[in-house]
Please model this.
Amino acid sequence: MQKRQDKKTRLQAIRLIVSSQALESQEDLQIELDKAGFPCTQTTLSRDLKQLRISKVRGRNGHSVYALPREGMFSPVMTREEKDKRCWRVVFSGNLMVVHTPPGHASMVAYDIDNAGSPYFLGTVAGDDTVLVVLQEDVKREVAREAIGEIVSQLA
Amino acid sequence: MQKRQDKKTRLQAIRLIVSSQALESQEDLQIELDKAGFPCTQTTLSRDLKQLRISKVRGRNGHSVYALPREGMFSPVMTREEKDKRCWRVVFSGNLMVVHTPPGHASMVAYDIDNAGSPYFLGTVAGDDTVLVVLQEDVKREVAREAIGEIVSQLA
DNA sequence: TTGTATTTTGCATAAAAATGCAATAAATCT
DNA sequence: AGATTTATTGCATTTTTATGCAAAATACAA
Model:
């Protein structure tokens, strides 16, 4: 067998390529990777993509393209209980809502809040275990509390 | 050909099944769907999944399961050009300004805001795609909006 | 070093998913 | 009603992706 190429670097190249172009098959990716100086087989690509947790997702047109995984994505295998536990405590201060979560889960919760499209929440900033949510000015805390409850348990 | 079953209903059933169990193949889905009273072929499923924009995503273990589409979940939903073109969304609440950016760009924007040396902005906190800017107490929103506009456009 | 374990990779092949074509049900038009 | 168009669906097949196995490079231990 020939001298191995640096796998780390190849994986990095794959990330780069996948994030910058819409590739529809491993064969296409293989071609691009080859251009970039990383020749390899479809077999290897299949394994690399698995390791990088890259999957094909459908655009509006129905076509599928490869895409990097985004944190905050959780598999449908997560149990109800696990999801409900994502949100620990909610307190308010001025027009800010402070959501406490388990360590490391803040970004996921923030992601869900952002994507819930609620009119009450203007935006979020996530740390490691805390999410800061900026409320619409005239929103009552009760309303906000209920809304966050729905988002967390609903996605749960 | 036999009497057709209601496609609408079948699609609904697929949504339900996919969102409640971790299925690894269309064949598995076919079996579940059959149990639910919607017998059909893999061919039909392939088409249904395409129409529903359901795709396989990888869990942490690397295994793939079908999952309903979630907006904004994957990067390629928006191309790089679209991201660059997208106009920043700026909203206010109290003496806070909330600046939305493309995913991962918040810290860069925050950095630029900090370094712009504007007297209107006391400080910033950046998440992944949101920057929280604390405004000087007596600053008018129009002024703030204009100021941020200048800072941001310098980036582009 | 020498021997052993682990990792990486490709080939051949299996498994999974997508699609061209054709048949026919259902809808629409005249 | 009868004719025409559109939508669904399955079969056969192709295309795409995953994997068992083996070879060889690299890492590791004694």
About this structure: The longest strand of chain A covers residues 121-126. The radius of gyration of chain A is 20 Å. The domain at 88-155 of chain A is CATH 3.30.1360.40 (Gyrase A; domain 2).
